[in-house]
Amino acid sequence: MSITRLLTSLLFVIAMAFTPLAAAQQEDPGVALLNDLATASPREVEAAIKAIANSGDERARSWLEAFGSNRLSIIKDSGKIVVVLNNRGRDWTIADALTSENLGEISRRKLDRININNAMRRQLEGTLAMLDLYADNPDLQAQAGKDLLGKVDEALVEPLTEFLAQDRPRAVTNRVEQALAIYRVEQLGDIEAVDVLAGSLHSRARAALNSAVTSDDPALAGKARIALESVEQKLKLNRAAETLYFGLSLGSVLVLAAIGLAITFGVMGVINMAHGELIMLGAYTTWGMQQLLPGQPGLALILSIPAGFLVAALAGVAIERSVIQFLKGRPLETLLATFGISLILQQLVRTVISPLNRTVITPEWMSGSLIINDALSLTLNRLYVLAFALLVFAALMLIMRKTRLGLEVRAVTQNRAMARSMGIRATRVDVMTFALGSGVAGLAGVALSQLTNVGPNLGQNYIIDSFMVVVFGGVGNLWGTLVAGLTLGTLNQLLEPWAGAVLAKIVVLVFIILFIQKRPRGLFPQKGRAAEG
Amino acid sequence: MNAKKSLKLGLSALALTVSLSVTAQEGPIKVGILHSLSGTMAISETALKDTMLMLIEKQNAEGGVLGRQLEPVVVDPASNWPLFAEKARELLAQEKVDVIFGNWTSVSRKSVLPVIEELNGLLFYPVQYEGEESSENVFYTGAAPNQQAIPAVDYLMNTIGVERWVLAGTDYVYPRTTNKILETYLKDQGVAEADIMINYTPFGHSDWQNIVSDIKRFGSAGKKTAVVSTINGDANVPFYRELGNQGVSASDIPVVAFSVGEQELSGIDTGPLVGHLAAWNYFMSVDSDANYDFIDEWVKFSQDDEAVTNDPMEAHYIGFNMYIEAVNKAGTTDVDAVKDAIIGVSVPNLTGGYATMMPNHHITKPVLIGEIQDNGQFSTVWQTPSTVAGDAWSDFLPGSRDLIADWRKPMSCGNFNVKEGKCGASAGEQALAAE
Q1: Where would I find the H helices in A262-361?
Q2: What ipTM does the predicted assembly reach?
Q3: Which residues from B are below 8 Å from A119, CB to CB?
Q4: A211 → closest Cβ in B222, B242, B268
């Protein structure tokens, strides 16, 4: 018996030596694991996932990730399991799931996807987090601990308890303890576990406590209620901070959109209805930049800042030279003419580029949020836009106060005739000022491309708000624009939770109307003789 | 001389009428296309115009209908609701089209209704809508609420186990009516008032910080929470982006959307959205030969390798084929004959089944629930075992549950009240009265 066994294994070794490839494929445990996953009924998927995770195969992680992102497929004819590398268009690039060998493109028709749904994804995420807990990377470990909150099921309890018994970083074990406690409170009604969750601001932990409050066990319900109340005050503070951040963020968007207008309308007195479309041009420049530099959205975004400024400034110069200069001192005609220009620009983009919105990619470093604590996190894209708005404002202040251009602009707007007699070329100043205001609108567009849709209607959504901010702040005053923008943003966000988005907007508008009735020149009216003219 | 002249005139007039009637018989069948090619709705409607042109081109290549070619007549109502009515009148009165395919928003359809009924035209309307309407002259090839909203809620409730509901929508008639229906439905199913949160936002809303944060808070009450979204058009993009940034993942709080299709997703990086849901009657990713062929044709026609197809396009595909079938059956393009012939007509849909025109002018459709994938497509996770017939009058609204629509003789009524036993005003008259 042992001889036959020896012989077989000897034979096997020889066979393997001669046909290494065929044998390796036959023996690859991955085939069975993946086939189990592919043929599993929804109830069996969990077991198949666990089997892959526990196999110790170094490819396990990549398989599970491919499964999670819907990229594991079977070739209909051959039954070969592949990973889809590129799933855009009709022909997809695939690679062998076992050998990672690139198999080139194949028609989508020939592939059968191994389907995943949210319930499976949840199990998968729990399992992947479990794998990550043992990763070498501490960041990955911490993230894994957080991911486990609310995703612990019966099968994970044992390995997690085992994990806790080992000596691991405190930050990670804390999370794992919380994750286990959530499971124990929700599934077992364990009163001891409530202590672990008390004081936690995490929404998942509070969800578990909230569900415990409604439980039939009065002792558990009472304890959970006390645990919840202990963080109530902290939570309120965090909520206030959050609302303030929301307000400042909306405000910064308003400031960005309006600050260019504050120069063209506020300082020069030109009613430019095409201002919104200049913003749109800036946003489209960002899109164009990203098309030119595929794969580097971050770099493209940074390069778009000067490019967006230039494009919008040039468009502004063209508008000024072709239309506005002939309508000096005729506000009604200027309004109508620039409104026409705005329609022309919109339709131009629609015809030349597309009526559809364009995708502007958010770079990695701008996605997600900056986490202050479990209840308060600041979304990164808005944080960057807030900082950008303040930077643009500071730069503009600097230009208006400290440069020759700023001096000339102020001179021309205060007394045109006098400035000209002092040797200032008023026409040139007009062009430069308008270019500056338009360029800043372009900058706003670059920033807005990260927050909203880049499409032909982008500008229309901001033109009314921009005028509102400039008028409310006081025409001709940059500080006024800043304060007005931030005030209106905060006001809007304060009202929104109890009035709803639609009503909040209306209330803000009514407020501005009443305010202008009382103070027609806005928050910071210009004083002195210049204001009288 | 005078008599001779008048005779001549009369003769030539006679000849003219004869030649006119001959051309009317032998000339092409005119198909009006009433979709906005400029303005806000151009983003959605342009693709539908192109779909129609493609279908007509294909039908002509196959020899047309009744031996006659089809001729598209394209007009641009420019996303301007009253202009829709004017353009519809132009199509019917001046161009004398035999049929119109068009409209997207409900308000534009309501604007067109009186004109279509007055001039006895035919309109195929391809978009999912709030129901509560059945006109003698309109065929609704998009989904009624019972073909989209109700099955989606059932899926969330029974398969995912959702107990707390956020109904978020854009502030206009479709979301408001749909949410009213859903609210009644949820309460009938035993959901408490406190477990339903309703939120409306203006068109094109872009600052979702507060609302997403509210949803997060609402979702931390210890019950499984889901968002049912009737948010319209591109306001969805910043909404989903905010969801992603604030870390709301589909496994915590899934969002099921009724207005987000492949086209909306093509303007957005779908990485953070993987797993959120949408309910439609068609997905571009559906694995059927009819669908793959349709996509191939569409890519070829639009000359864009990345071109996407969506649910309203399938609705036009079905509506167009139904019309062709009905004309063949009636042997004429006469409006009244086609109207009678089309009821009961069955044509293949793109998901591998058949769509039938019901007597209430709605069609049968399968309901699919799909999860968003990272390539902007949906993967179907659930679908109704068979097709569902569209219900013009919802059973979950007071006043509407007693109404039925049946355009077969002898009833021929779009809102027959079974309790009172009489027929109400026509859809067009109601639309006029509402103005």
Answers
A1: 275-292, 297-322, 331-352
A2: 0.81
A3: 160
A4: B222
CATH of the domain at B211: 3.40.50.2300
DSSP state, residue B28: P
Position B16 scores a pLDDT of 46
Question: Is residue B111 located within the same domain as residue B177?
Answer: no
Statement: residue A443 has pLDDT above 60: yes
CB atoms A356 and B266 under 8 Å:
yes
Residue from the list B213, B246, B375 with its beta carbon closest to the beta carbon of A87:
B375
- The span from the CA of B7 to the CA of B3, in Å, is 6
What is residue A7's predicted lDDT score, i.e. its pLDDT?
55
Residues B119, B188, single domain; the answer is no
The answer to whether A268 and A430 have CB atoms below 8 angstroms apart is yes
- CB-based contact A209 B42, cutoff 8 Å: no
In terms of domains, do B45 and B72 share one? yes
Instruction: Report the share of chain A in percent with pLDDT over 90.
Output: 34
Q: What is the pTM of this model?
A: 0.82
Mind giving me the DSSP string for A195-251? HHHTT---HHHHHHHHHHHTSS-HHHHHHHHHHHHHTHHHHHHHHHHHHHHHHHHHH
Are A212 and A227 within 8 A, CB to CB? Answer: no
Indicate whether A60 pLDDT > 60.
Answer: yes
Does residue B179 sit in the same domain as residue B316? no
Are residues B259 and B381 located together in one domain of the fold?
Answer: yes
The whole domain housing B265 covers 147-285+370-389
In chain B, residues with a C-beta closer than 8 Å to the C-beta of A379 are 209, 242, 245-246
Cα distances from B272 to residues A294, A385, A500, B243, B431, in angstroms, run 20, 20, 26, 8, 42
Contact between residue A63 and residue A72 where contact means Cβ atoms under 8 Å apart = yes
pLDDT band of B433, cuts 50, 70, 90: confident
Is the CB of A89 less than 8 angstroms away from the CB of B306?
Answer: yes
A493:B205 CB<8 A? no
E-state strands within A329-481: 369-373, 376-379
Q: Is residue B111 within 8 Å of B333, Cβ to Cβ? A: no
B351 lies in the same domain as B227: no
Q: How confident is the model at residue A533 (pLDDT cuts 50, 70, 90)?
A: very low
Q: Are B256 and B309 in a shared domain? A: no
Give A371-382 as a 3 state SS string: EEECCEEEEHHH
Contacts of A19 (CB under 8 A, 6+ apart): none
Whether residue B1 has pLDDT greater than 60: no
- Pull the structure tokens for residue B181: 């229906």
Better pLDDT: A138 or A490: A490
Residue B398 included in any domain: no
- Looking at the partner chain, which of B223, B267, B305 has a beta carbon nearest the beta carbon of A356? B267
Q: Say if B394 falls within a structural domain.
A: no
Question: Which residue matches tokens 């206009």?
Answer: B172
b/e per residue A372-387 (b: at least 16 CB within 10 A): eebbbbbbbbbbbbbe
Whether B313 and B380 map to the same domain: the answer is no
Angstrom distance (rounded) from CA A376 to CA B217: 12
* Alpha-carbon gap, residue A446 to A466, rounded angstroms: 16
Identify how many contiguous H helices and E strands chain A contains and give both numbers: 24, 7
pLDDT in tens, A230-244: 888 888 999 999 999
What structural domains and CATH numbers belong to chain A?
27-116 (2.30.30), 119-230 (no CATH), 241-532 (1.10.3470)
Give the separation between CA B184 and CA B370, rounded to whole angstroms. 25
- Percent above pLDDT 70 for chain B: 94
Per the CB < 8 Å rule, is B220 touching A207? yes
R_g of chain B, CA atoms, integer Å: 23
Tell me if residue B256 falls in helix, strand or coil. Answer: strand
Taking the CA of residue B249 and the nearest CA in chain A, the distance in Å comes to 10
Report yes or no on B114 lying in a domain: yes
Question: Is residue B70 in some structural domain?
Answer: yes
